[in-house]
Specification:
Blueprint (H helix, E strand, L loop, with lengths): L2 H14 L17 H23 L1 E9 L8 E9 L7 H11 L19 E4 L2 E4 L13 E4 L6 E3 L2 E2 L2 H10 L23
Parallel strand pairs: 1-5
Antiparallel strand pairs: 1-2, 3-4, 3-5, 6-7
Length: 195
């Protein structure tokens, strides 16, 4: 909900009630109608409360930026302010919103969006996790810090270099193996009875 929409609604209520000064709690046109006066006060208070809450929904994200290909190769945290009332619930959603609406040069990895592939692994507020399963901390009084996975070289922004990881992965071969070849040379199939 935009601030201008709230301001317009508030002004409209005040105008209908003949209320010139929006800060005043007295509505001359309702003199002699205590119930209506009370309803008008409640309506104005509700608008003020919505306005306050709408302002609270702006959340700051401090995101690591860095591009080793850039001549200066400076790394820094860049602040982005996201309206949570207009954003999905996960950190992943906030990142996509920033990329689409503010800064398309921000780089990250993503694929499945359901916590399976691990592509969106990064460090969020000090914890290594996947952004698509990490809910946004709705406490707008503090920023959320997003940095690449630690102890890894960075290709750009939130994209870590996974070459070393995959080399180690190949060395330990952490997958199931069989000594029996498939008869038709295609994939291993499983019947319902095998499950
Ligand atoms: S995009 Fe696959 S785990 Fe997040």
């Amino acid at each position: 909900m935009s601030k201008s929409w709230i301001r317009q609604g508030y002004t409209k209520v005040a105008r209908i009630l003949g209320k010139r000064d929006p800060k005043s709690r007295n509505f001359p046109v309702l003199e002699g109608h205590p119930a209506a006066q009370q309803h008008a006060e409640v309506a104005v208070e509700a608008h003020e409360s919505i306005k306050e809450r709408a302002e609270e929904l702006i959340k700051e994200f401090k995101i690591y930026r860095g591009n080793p290909d850039h001549p200066n190769n400076l790394t820094y945290l860049q602040s982005y302010f996201v309206d949570l009332s207009n954003c999905g619930p996960m950190v992943f959603d906030a990142l996509q919103k920033i990329k689409e609406e503010e800064h398309s040069t921000l780089s990250d990895r993503r694929s499945c969006r359901e916590g399976i592939c691990g592509s969106c692994s990064m460090n969020i507020d000090g914890t290594n996790t996947v952004a698509c399963l990490r809910p946004i901390d709705a406490d707008t009084s503090k920023a959320t810090y997003i940095t690449p996975l630690p102890h890894m070289f960075v290709i750009k922004d939130l994209v870590a270099d996974l070459t070393h990881f995959y080399n180690q992965y190949r060395m330990i071969e952490p997958w199931l193996k069989t000594t029996k070849a498939v008869e038709d040379g295609r994939e291993y199939r499983q019947s319902p009875a095998d499950k």
